[in-house]
Amino acid sequence: MDPEFGKELERQRSYLLRVARLQLRDAALAEDVVQDTLAAALTAQGGFTGKSTVKTWLTGILKHKIIDAIRRKQREPLLASTFDDECDIEDLDGLFKAPFGAWDSPPAEWGDPEQALNRSQFFDIMDFCLEKLPPNTARVFMMREVMGLESDEICKELAITANNLWVILYRARMSLRECLEQNWFKESGARA
Amino acid sequence: MNLLKRALGHILSCKDATHLVSRMQERELGVFSRWALRLHLAACEACTRFEQQMRFLREAMHRYRD
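Structure tokens for the assembled complex are given below, as produced in the milestone run.
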């Protein structure tokens, strides 16, 4: 085993843990899944071709481990206590004016948002915003956008309808947009 | 322009438009929805901005894992 490679894997541990926790909402289970992922990565070292980054490659392994964990943990794959609330988006109606549904406060100008992608602080704010999402919303959004699962795979794994999925992703996107605007784009505008 | 905006608002409100923009990231829209959304975006600066921000969000999440 290449010790350098082992060290590189270790460096990704906190990222993997964060992603796993957001999807499993169970710290101990997230630890296990990340441990499995790193162990699998070490044995499959030869499978890493260097075509993608180590992080992307690990994310791919993590994806399978998380799905396995969800399947094993069949009792309540989703947090039932808040599921109905998360599928009901009346609370987001405040973003629009009744009765015609125009924006109450329209999205602000973000300038050149691409620049944010080169700043590690931007991703700290992103983590902060992800943590604020309701549990199932965070989970579904991470599965879709970070793990890159297709919509129907998510519906199948979590046993939810396509409509539930759309509403939950909509909630996630609206909340993240708002949170990033308040905590990054307005702030960085103020700093400039 | 205001009149046009109001007329388009009757076909599709900003609220509806945001739903379609989000859903578009999951699957292709039907012919009518696509047409209505395109017209709405052509006249609505706020929703155009929203649509760009949603594309940015997706890109940012890809970058998050890379």
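The two ends of chain B are 43 Å apart (CA to CA). The interface with chain A takes residues 9, 13-16, 18-19, 22-23, 25-27, 45-47, 49-50, 52-54, 56-66 of chain B (CB under 8 Å). Further analysis is deferred to the final report.
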